[in-house]
Amino acid sequence: MKINITNIDCTLRDGGYYNDWDFSFEFVRKYLLALSVAQIDYVELGFRFLNNKGFKGAYAFCKDDFLNKLDIPTGINIAIMINADDLISDNRLNWEALEILVPLESGKSKVNLLRIASTFDDFEIIAPAFKILKQKGYKTAVNIMQISKLSHNKFKKIGIIATDNDVDIIYLADSFGSLVPDDIVDIVRFLKESWDGQIGFHAHDNKGFALINTLKAIESGIAWVDSTINGMGRGAGNTKTDELLLSLDKYKKDKSNLIPLLKMINNDFKQFKEKYLWGTNCYYFMAAECSIHPTYIQTILSDDRFKEEDILSVINYLESEDSTKFSSHQLESSKNFYSGEPIGTFSPITILKNKEVLIIGSSKNLKSHREAVEDFIRKQKPIVIALNTCSQIDDSLIDFRIACNPMRLMADLDIYLSLDQPLITPLSMLPKPLFNKLRSKKVLDYGIGISKDGFDFHDSYGMIPNQLVFAYVLSFIASGKANKAFLAGFEGYSFGDNRNTEINELIDKFKQRENNLRLIAITPSQYSGLETISIYGI
After folding, report:
1. Residue 202 phi/psi, 5° resolution?
2. Same domain, 100 and 232
3. For residues 13 and 294, what is the distance between their CA atoms, to the nearest angstrom?
4. Is residue 340 part of a domain?
5. Spatial CA neighbour of 206 closest among 313, 289, 304
6. Range of the structural domain that residue 329 is part of
7. What is the largest CA-CA distance in the chain?
8. How far apart are the first and last CA of the chain?
């Protein structure tokens, strides 16, 4: 059986989300040659953004004068993508923006295909732009995003709008990577009820179905398909160009020559993947199931401050919100489990007033100084508070444990229930299932509130800049009017780790509010805001 499939490789465009579309000339030269040898039909070199906020490389703008500098191999057609958002102003098509983004006729440009990425709601607004682009001589496609959220009737309407506005290709983009093969069959059938033109498919690999969904789309009569080298693309990535070409070889007379492409995968793209870590995993899978924009997962996976329980909490929060579009503000909100009014029933002053406190952190280097720390506790007799389930010293020397992350509490619940020490936590503010499970344990219920303004201390609760347990314990001891706080096991993180900066900023904010309470690290620490002395000289 012979099939006629047009393949667009959009590595530079979709993969550019990882490096801000800043690819070198030498890399692109090798990339284009490899795709030429592999007989790829189109290469989508990048976006043509209107917004120039923050640094982005040349492939975010793909201006004609820049494209003229590229040596495009014979046989490769060039595509670029425009975002519908850049063409809409006051809920109307911005004709001036269209002219700025596409100033030349096709004969004067290296671009053959112009694609506009649009939601269903925006498509009707920007649809007249396609007629203008056709008049300029370009082949056109609309990439309808988030197709998993659309109804049967909306697909029919898409076909009608596209027909009325001379669109050449309707591309169906599985933005959340949530579809399964049977979904593809239904969606194509829905669209064909009102559309006789060509259809394309753009897959994301959140659930690991990108390739099989693409092949099912071809079986269903789709003639255009997208892919990226080694799957490099936003979030979990896309259908892999190499795997797609191998899958399609059986329909071709001449098999693809993949040698230059495979060399790039084993060298250049191997380095990219080690750095940017795209590819499906359970977090992308969950995001796909919940129709959460993959950039949320991409962002938190690139931030080493997020632990497993934090990621799950963010996903749970985003599931309850409209998270189909990425919003940095919404991501920030998702980090805060404690968004309501702070509630607490325990006053720390009853146990801490004018007392010395020793806070035990989780640094692995604490084991090297365990004996000295334990001697210090026996001689100085401070109130010892251990963060979370820290176990680097003799458990009998720990007076209290402190924790505030609900997901971590749930994950370590059995440990907390087995430990003898009372637990300091915002009990009244915890999810009901967790609240009920902790009722059997002695809990000091100290409330928590999140405030961008920094720290503020009250009798039974504290306002803190973030919900890190370190911020929570600082609030607890300040509310309790302790006279001195020693810290052991606060080494910090490796050089360049963002978490060091975050903790230093936290300490600075604390000292701005409470500068009478000394914070003294007695084991090695990289945190610049801490006073440091040696436990061996005390």
Report:
1. -125, 115
2. yes
3. 16
4. no
5. 289
6. 282-334
7. 86
8. 83
- Give the Cα separation of 269 and 259 in Å (integer): 14
What pLDDT, on a 0 to 100 scale, did the predictor assign at position 333? 66
- Portion of the chain with pLDDT greater than 90, in percent: 76
CA dihedral 128, 134, 136, 141 (to 10 degrees): 90
- Do 79 and 102 lie in one domain? The reply is yes
Domains in the chain, number = 3
Q: Which amino acid is at 379?
A: K
**Among positive and negative, which fits the CA dihedral 377, 382, 383, 387?**
negative
**Strands in 129-181 per DSSP E:** 139-144, 169-173
Distance of CA 352 to the CA centre of its chain: 41
Tokens of 338: 């404690």
If asked whether residues 32 and 180 sit together in one domain, one would say yes
Per-residue confidence band for 495, with pLDDT thresholds at 50, 70 and 90: low
- Residues 57 and 97 reside in one and the same domain: yes
Where helices occur in 193-258 by DSSP H, the ranges are: 210-219, 241-248
Is residue 343, in this structure, part of any structural domain at all? Answer: no
Is residue 172 domain-resident? yes
Q: Please, are residues 521 and 532 in contact by the beta-carbon 8 Å criterion?
A: yes
The CATH number of the domain holding residue 193 is: 3.20.20.70
Residues 300 and 386 in one domain: no
Give the predicted TM-score (pTM) of the model: 0.70
Q: Residue 114 and residue 349: Cα distance in Å, rounded?
A: 67
H/E element holding 422?
none
Tell me, yes or no, whether 323 and 391 share the same domain: no
Q: What residues contact 65, with CB distance under 8 A and at least 6 apart? A: none
